[in-house]
Amino acid sequence: MDNQDLRLDLKAIDTSSLVDKVEMRLIEVFIYRELKPGDSIPKETELAVIMGVSRTVIRESLNRLKTMGLIESKKHKGTVIKSPDLSVILSKSLIPRILDAKTLMDVFEMRLALEVGMADFIFARKTDADIRELEEIVEIEPERSDQILFDVDHELKFHGKLYQMTGNTTLEDFQNLLLPAFQHVYNIGLLKMKGKRKRYKSHKELVALLKKGTPDEFREGMRRHLENHFVRILSAGEDHTSQ
Asked: What does the pLDDT look like over 46-83, one tens digit per residue?
């Protein structure tokens, strides 16, 4: 048997489990040592010697941690701990067209929970300039908008402004991340309305509550504003259960 035949029979050794172990061990040490953003970690060669594995395994493990946003390379400092950007991490896997219907519905429910739950933050941190901007956004709306279907840009502009008013940049980034999933739910008809639409709080009424109402009234107003979405989710759930 010549060397060529021997090479054909050989296969690469699967080191994925070893990479997994190194990755988890590094994370455990980061936590145990209470490392903070900016703290340096040993070089690849040092880690390979300390952990008794090849540089290839170390490099792949570190690449995974970089993808997760836990570490980054800094000029003149080497590899350092990084505060991960949650929206970047989620954006790598939150692809609406490959999510199943159950996951899409869960994401949509999360949106409704966020928008009702963030009402207190909006009310506490609102400014006169915020109110004026919202008034400009809703100026095109009629007094009764129950049966009006506004374009997507208008909806995003109003609700996007509310997320901005929370003063929570992570929440705002999260909203931008989830927007494609929200829109996909609408586009594929996953939400279905049974019976007559309920009278809900309009955008204009929400702005009025922000100006003169109480936090409790605004929170209830937001729930009423989104109520038809909750009804549609329940209807969709009933359809799924009956199948």
From this structure: 999 999 999 999 999 999 999 888 999 998 889 999 98
In order of 15, 18, 35, 40, 83, the CA distances from 21 in angstroms are 10, 5, 20, 21, 22
Q: Give residue 147's domain range.
A: 89-242
Given its phi and psi angles, is residue 12 left (phi above 0), alpha (psi -120 to 50 degrees) or beta? beta
Q: Judge if 154 and 65 occupy the same domain.
A: no
Cα 241 to Cα 228: distance, rounded to the nearest angstrom? 20
Q: Provide the CATH number for the domain around residue 59.
A: 1.10.10.10
Helices (H) and strands (E) in the chain, counts: 13, 2
Beta strands in the chain (DSSP E): 71-74, 78-81
The pTM (predicted TM-score) of the whole model is 0.59
108 C-beta neighbours (distance < 10 Å), count: 22
Same domain, residue pair 27 and 96: no
